[in-house]
Amino acid sequence: MSNDSMTVYLLSIRGTLSPANIEEARKVHNMTAGDPKGVEGAKSLGDLSHMVHVPTGKPESGAGEFLILDQWNNLDGLNTFFADKQVQDGGGMIFTSRDPVVWMPAEGFHSYHFPSPADKKERIIGIVRGMVKSHDDARKVHNELIASTVNAARRAGSVSHETYFRVAAPGSPEGLELFGVDLWQDHAGMDAYYDTPGLMEKMGKMFTGMPDATTWLRPAGDWVEW
């Protein structure tokens, strides 16, 4: 596990919002995670970005689920920041329950990042998460799939594709939980692409069981992000 400043780790925090509705959640988030002193503290410790998301479907009750994706280039700084009691208390105000996980870039897995035209305003995230048998097996299936579909994905509105593995504790075997993140600029295009006959079956060959696949978008309103 490297702490090199050019290794960018992904922190995902997925959970159920504590406030009664999304507007109240926005206020609580901006007061806690978006507090200027806290933001500056996180940045000084290696937090490069902080983005918030809600599911593309409407919640069944309350404010529903919430997903935070942060990028860090310092694991020691990340651990120091989230060990702070005030930060933990702030998280408790946002979520009733949450699953924070740190992910590291999947070595040798194809990725891409394309520019997004100014008139393309939509931003939707597609995530797949599941266990694989081995890095080598998953890499082979993944890279063949991405190489054969990248043009179709781009035509459908794909902006970027990145793959990560869960960071394993020191001395533990390599993490086998995979986390794939797609960014899209066209919601309808994304849905049509994911519905391509045979695509999910091919993707499923990477995993030992049924992966968790979800789609997310940025909630309305003024949320503190960077």
Strand composition percent: 25-35%
Q: Work out the number of β strands.
A: 9
Shape: globular
How many domains is the backbone divided into? 2
The CATH topology of the largest domain is given as: Alpha-Beta Plaits
Low-confidence stretches: none
Q: Structural class, judged by helices and strands?
A: alpha+beta
Which architecture name of the largest domain does CATH use? 2-Layer Sandwich
Helix content: 25-40%
- Overall radius of gyration: 18 Å
Q: Summarize the biggest pleated sheet.
A: 8 strands, antiparallel, barrel
Major sheet: arrangement of strands: 1-3-2-9-6-8-7-4
Q: What is the overall pLDDT average? A: 95
Order of helices and strands: EHHEEHHEEEHEEHHE
Summarize the structure.
The protein is α+β, with helices and mostly antiparallel strands.
Provide the fold topology.
Layout: E1 9-17, H1 22-31, H2 36-44, E2 47-55, E3 65-72, H3 75-83, H4 85-94, E4 95-105, E5 112-113, E6 124-131, H5 135-156, E7 158-166, E8 177-184, H6 187-194, H7 199-204, E9 212-217
Antiparallel strand pairs: 1-3, 1-4, 2-3, 2-9, 4-7, 5-7, 6-8, 6-9, 7-8
Describe what this molecule looks like in 3D.
By secondary structure, the chain is α+β, with helices and mostly antiparallel strands. It folds into two domains: about 100 residues, Alpha-Beta Plaits, CATH 3.30.70.100; about 110 residues, 2-Layer Sandwich (Alpha-Beta Plaits), CATH 3.30.70. It is globular, with a radius of gyration of 18 Å. Strands 1-3-2-9-6-8-7-4 form an eight-stranded antiparallel β-barrel, surrounded by five helices. About 35% of the residues lie in helices and about 30% in strands. The longest helix has 22 residues. It is built from seven helices and nine strands.
